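2024-03-11 09:14:02 DEBUG pipeline.ingest accepted 1 chain
2024-03-11 09:14:02 DEBUG pipeline.ingest length=305
2024-03-11 09:14:03 DEBUG pipeline.predict start
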Amino acid sequence: MLKIKKLFICFFIFLLPVNLLAQDLIITNSGDSINCEITKIQAQNIHYRIDDKNKQIASTAIKKYTFNFYPFITTTVSQPTVSQQYYQSVNPDIESKYIIEYPNLRITYSGGYSYRLAPIDPNIPDDFINYMEKLKSGFHLGSDVIYFFSQAWGIGAKGGLYKASNSINNIYVEVGNGNRIYGNMSDNITISFAGATLATDLFKQNRKNRLLLSFSLGCLWYEDDMILIDMFKVKGNTFGTALNIAYDIQLSEHLSLGFMASLYAGSMSEYTISDGMTTLAVDLDAQHQENLTRFDLSVGLNILL
């Protein structure tokens, strides 16, 4: 009789589904336990299968999860990469079963305040110091595209547009024989940037939020639609760089809010000035080059794909 019971127990265990013996465990914040098979781990959701049905649960609703009921490899969702690496050291088959996905493509649209850092030329008359100081402040719009080819590193492109303007009425310019010509003065400055980007994610172990550091090399284009009694257009370009640090706060699986600080640098050694009829090329010596260095503070929306 004892032998029959042992055979019956062995036969019953043999008939149990394999996935039942190898079930995973998800524990929610409310204390509920879900016996299931975890099929995919993402930054925002965990996908699992139960009773032949595919389901998902938000990462924020999970306290912890366990693979195959092994308590010594329990981990929190906030560090999925650590859990994957640790579990692989225990069970090499993890790679074929559990897939941890992170956004590979980050598309950013941003804008904010800008301030040009170059000092004002000491030869500027005192009456125009305040005018030039106001021209140093402006706003910018920008766009970034970064493709992450690994968890920590990405490449892409950066583009941006800076605008600043100021005007003053009833000025005069002295010409020969002590004569004066009266009129208006204004500047409408646009500085554009486009370049290639190398980026790294400093929060490699926490994909909920991101701290990104990026460096861009490219070109700066300068344009000033100015009026000094008459109308003129000043144009030039130069090599430029951009150093950017961004902190992203995840809003959903495909959206995050970014707060950024950027430093653009470049120095223009030549430009052209045109009155619509005649164009003059101007070369600047090292002491009088147009310094395009500026500091940006931005808020942006990131699309994560």
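2024-03-11 09:14:41 DEBUG pipeline.report The longest helix spans residues 2-15.
2024-03-11 09:14:41 DEBUG pipeline.predict end
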